[in-house]
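TL;DR need structure tokens for one chain.
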Amino acid sequence: MTITPHTELIRRLADDFTALQDAVLADMNGVCAPEIAAALQDEALVGPVTVVLAHADVLTRGAVRQAELSSQPPDRLRRLRAHARRVRRARSQAEARYKKERALQVGRRPRPADPLELRVARAAFRQAYDESLRQELRGRGLPDGTPQAPEGDLARWAWERETGARQLPARVRELCDCDDEAFVSALLLDAREEENPHLQHEAVVERWARHTRTALAWGRYAIGQAEREAAACAPAVRRAPLEALDDAYQDAAVLAARCREAQLRATALHDRMQAALAAGPGGQLVGECRAAALARFAEAQPEAWHRVREVTTRHRAECPEQTEGCPHCHRALAAVLADSLPDGTDEDDDAGRPEEDVDVTYGDRYALLTDLPDSAVVAVADAAAGDDSALCGYGWAAEDGTTGRGDCLASSSGEAEVIGICAAALSLLDHHEDAPVVVLCDSVQAVKAVDAALTAGDAEAARRVCVFPESRELMHRLVRHRHRVQVRWLKGHVGHELNEAADALARFAFRRVTGRIPSGAVRREEARILRSLGREPGPLSAAA
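>> reply
TL;DR here they are.
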């Protein structure tokens, strides 16, 4: 770390979470001491500042929500909302600064040592090159299949080779060996009860970073449960539910901070791995393996190798970074080669391409229904969700004039949409004996998840999207009727009548469960929405 007049202060702020958060918020409000404000600009605190602001962001938004539910005076509510906006803005600025500093650090690293031809071949013909590398590693005596994905695991291989295998502490081994559900439970205990220092171990930190999203979802689940209970009570008797809501927001704030810390620690580990790969003896061996793998690739794929040589030779004649080895040019050259691949060739196996570009079945404006029998019942489902809480609303509208709405707890908008699809389908299955049911939805993620479960006849096929027990139970119920149910994608917000009706009902359900509609006005508001859609109230789904 650079020696500055504030070195001791910087070290103290880095080690004291509360002191750093107080300093950051004081700086945000313009009341920070000059020496502390100067210390906060040090690059050593760039990452930690994002951690404390992640924590503060959740707490300030929680304070706003609790004030809304406790009928605070308008002036106080405006002040809380203004403070929350300032914290959110400060968090965005801190994240932007971190990304900028991170880019500068990456730019200061040694330029890639691999030849341009190797990097282009690896990027443009990944499967063929990886197979050549596997063969080379096996030829050098490495166990068959290790590493499983050579280019992705070579940095870890070199790191472990140089740091040496060592016996892991028992608590670390437990975290390594437990299943994902138990690991997420450990993350929740870390946030709610006592910080677990073993999560920082090199053998665990990547898994920690990978599962923080799920842990955060369970934090929002607790907020949703408390918020639902508070909103269901009369304002005069909300004290206990609001205390539970405050506890849930406190836990979620710690989860948010620990999530950011996990990401920073995983990034630091990757940096150390890359440094070992570039400078250590293991890195030299990796370089030799890559070069030999390129020779194998050239022998096995002569036409592809010829095209790689041709495009790189032509590029070098004009590249201003030629003397530095064209460090960033391989991606663009690989894209040129990919664009010129013959039809039907898929060397990269869709790697790195956006989901919507890979699956062309989701490019039409409306779902295609011409292949359905006349007896089919068609409905559109939609969902509405907030930011902090797992509470969501869903709604659906069918061609037969029926509608439904309800609320749920969902880890993501995709899971909320899955619940809406299931609720619509199960209600229509009950009311239309033997008729096929088709549910349309504007969420690609939800459609794919439900379709995968129906096709496989197994609700577990949607497990990645269906995190919470509510959606899993609905999916298990729906799979029993898989031969009568289809789900298809429909582009949203393009004026489709059923889609607009489902969207309005979903937003109404969300506002109702979060207490944004007075309990006495619920029926009037629902009737007004249905009249505006030209519909009369129909049988409402009670599936979730």
